[in-house]
Every structure is written in C-alpha cells, then in structure tokens.
Design goal:
- The chain has about 500 residues and is α/β, with parallel strands linked by helices.
- The chain is built from 20 helices and 18 strands.
- It has two domains: about 160 residues, Ribosomal Protein S5, domain 2 (2-Layer Sandwich); about 230 residues, P-loop containing nucleotide triphosphate hydrolases (Rossmann fold), CATH 3.40.50.
- It comes from Thiopseudomonas denitrificans.
- InterPro entries: AAA+_ATPase, CHLI-like, MCM_dom, Mg_chelat-rel, Mg_chelat-rel_C, Mg_chelatse_chII-like_cat_dom, P-loop_NTPase, Ribosomal_Su5_D2-typ_SF.
- Belongs to the Mg-chelatase subunits D/I family. ComM subfamily.
Length: about 500
Amino acid sequence: MSLAVINSRAQLGLDAPLVRVEVHLSNGLPSLSLVGLPETAVRESKDRVRSAIINSNLSFPQKRITLSLAPADLPKDGGRFDLAIATALLAASSQVPAHSLLQLELLGELGLSGHVRPVRGILPAALAARKAGHALVVPAANAEEAALVPGLTLYAIEHLQQLVDHLNERVPLVPWRSQGLDTDPPAHPDLNQVQGQLAAKRALLVAAAGQHNLLLSGPPGTGKTLLASRLPGLLPPLSHAEALEVAAVQSVTSSQPLQHWPGRPFRQPHHSASGPALVGGGSRPQPGEITLAHHGVLFLDELPEFDRKVLEVLREPLESGVIVISRAAGRLQFPARFQLVAAMNPCPCGYLGDQSGRCNCTPEMVLRYRTKLSGPLLDRIDLHVSVAREPTSLRQVTGQGLSSEQAREQVMAARRYQQQRQGCCNSQLDLDNLHRHCPLGDADRLWLEQACERLQLSLRASHRILKVARTLADMEGITDIRRNHLAEALQYRTQLNS
C-alpha cells in the first residue's frame, strides 16, 4: 500500500486537536516533502525518523515521499509526531498492516536509535483520545500520566520495534495498568508554628473557608510569608476532576513526571516577573503563573514592588477565573481559578504603625507607595489584614494554638455547607445567587448600606463583604447572616486604612 493515514494529537494551549499524519509513496527520485505548517522541530523529524527506522532493523522507503500533517492551517511544533510519522512510513511501505492503525493514536519523540522519548501535553491528548474512542500509544515515561484518564485503552512503549512487533502480531502489547504515581502531596508547614498573630490566623481561616483573596500588610518580620505558606495546608483535597485540570496544566508545561499529585499548587513568582510571565503569552502562548496556580494559591510577596501594569492584568482573571490571550494567529483560553494571597509593607521603610516608632516616612511618601496599587485591584481582594509585630520570643512555640489539621476540618465543614447550598465556594457566587443565598433583614441591610456609604466603598466591595459574612456564618454552621458576621467582614475592609 502506497498511502497510509495515522492519528496523532497537536498541542494548542490546553487542547489537543486531532492531527492526521498522511504518507504517500510514489515513483521518482528518493525525496521527502513535509507539508502542513510544520515548525522547525517538526521539519527536523524526517532525519530523526530515518535514523530510528534504520537502527530498528527496518527499511526506510527509497521512494518519493509526500508527508502531510492535516489540518494544514494548524501550526505543529515539537517532536510529538515522530512516532506517528515513522509508523505511517512503515504502513505505506507495507512493513506493518495499515488496517490495525485505524483506532490508534500515536504520540512520542524518536531518538536516533529508535527509543521513544517523552513529550509534553500527554494528559490533554489522553482525554481527547478517550472522547474519540481511540486507543493511545505513548512513551513509557508518559504512561502513568496518561493512565490518570479512566476508561482509556493505553499502550506504553520504549522502542519503535515494540510497536512494530505489536502491529505485526508477533509480540502483542499488553494494555498499560497503572502502578500509581510515586509523588505524594507536599507536606505543608503547620499553622501552629506561627507565633501569635491570632487575628491574622483567623483571617487566613476565613480565606480558606470561602476561597477569598487575602492581603497581609505589616512591618518586616511579622510573619506574613509564614502565614501565606500555611494556606495550602488548610485547603481541602482536590476532587478528581480538579486534580485532572491541575495535572493538565503541568502536562503542557513540562514533559517530566507530574509533581505533587494530587496536591494544590502554590506559586510564588518574584516581583520582577513580567506580564507574560504572570498571565501567560509568547508567540505560541504558554500558561503563566496564574494558570500554574489553578485550583491553588498564588502568593505575591512585596506586592507594591511588582510593576503596576503587571498587577493590572490580574483584574479580569480574578473575576472570571480564566485568562484569554489574543495573538494575530488566534485566541487561547487558559483556566485561572486561583486564590490570591499578597503581602506588603505599610510604607517604603516598612515600619509605619510599628510600636518601635522607627518609621521616618512622610505622608507623601506613604501615599506615593500605596498608590502603586490601584483601587480596582484592591477592590477585588476580600480580606485586608494588618499584621502587627509580636513580642520577641525565642522559645519553641510549636503545638500552641490551632493546628493545620484542626483548621482544615473547620474549612472542609464550611465548604460542605457551600457545596450543598449553592454548588460553589462563596467567593464564586454571582449576583443572582448572592441575593438568593445571602439574604439580610431590613435592619441589617440598612446598617450595611450606611456603613459602606460612610466608608465610601464601592458596590463590588459591598458584595464581597456580604460573601465574607456568608463564609463567617458557614464556619459557625448558621443559616442566617447576623450583624456580628457583617461587622467582622466589614472590619477586614477597613484595617489597612486605620
């Protein structure tokens, strides 16, 4: 047979569109023509494939070869098509039967010896293959990752010859059975290791219970970073669907085995990070830090030191939970349902309001420092907490106060109330559900409206106060929002200005 068609998958953001590798052999001087919008790594595949076939004791066709990657208008990059191209050449030259390839999808990069190397984006490809009803052949190093998709017929190979023997029914491959990933969720430091800071710990617990964004402000050395690093340990475990979403993001950014499955990500970019590093971008858009923090925590330390233009790009994903990157070639959408935790000093020297009286900043300097953060961005952060300096003590304090395990139980109980009532966390309530699930009595509504008017808070800020109050009621297992819940939620909006 001089024509063969093999299924493979490209990588386009977090999607894996189907690519048909078509090979036609015709008479003429030996040559290989590759079409279908291939990029450099794909164009170089013909040399890798030729050596891999020859070094696997197979015959490279001495024909005029036309190789097409369809659809022609979809850019293809990387070495992920090597295995499909080599198999299509073997099928077109009748070295393997073409009929056995109809329900297979092949992914993998070939070494010159014929060994199959891992590639990125296996998990989205596995999800797409299952949806299409196809079996999937992947490098052995990617097998455990692809096996996370239930109901998929999966084959893992280490060498091209194994696939050839399977297709020729000499040594059939056994469907891969997962042995389980060897990575465990990371061990997060315990909350009771933080000395004092009862008010900040309370705010951290509220943030975890309702998935609220949190801003910590205080002098250097007061424990802001310590508190932020404890948040992932307070959050409930990921559901299987959420864990697959997190793993899919990791899959398209690295060909290495998954890390910390199925733990929540904790990302801490440096304040010198650019806009594309934070939200994603590039000529072929790749996920940024906010997508890498999907279903986890994004911690921005020294918040005012970030470029203001960089911080402004957070405003849309904080509301929508997605980031859309537009380029001339098209638009890509990445998930970005992250929980923002930020830390900052109250002034340029860092000691404004400190009991030591060391601050020497003028009001103009403080104002200039704080205006590095825009009002619309601060409006989207639910909890604003001042962290004061605690008395110095070098004694061991571990084991005092609420532990992370005890705090997590409270958080999970509050999250269960939210899921049963509205199917999402309180921070994700839209306007209709906000009024439905956060009803207030006339007196409480009037009190909140007057407080917001007196403090000159926006309508968005008043809605977020209501969501935090709903979380506080859930933490107590109370159906109705009470005045003390509103007062505490309002307090979190006024601490930084006090």
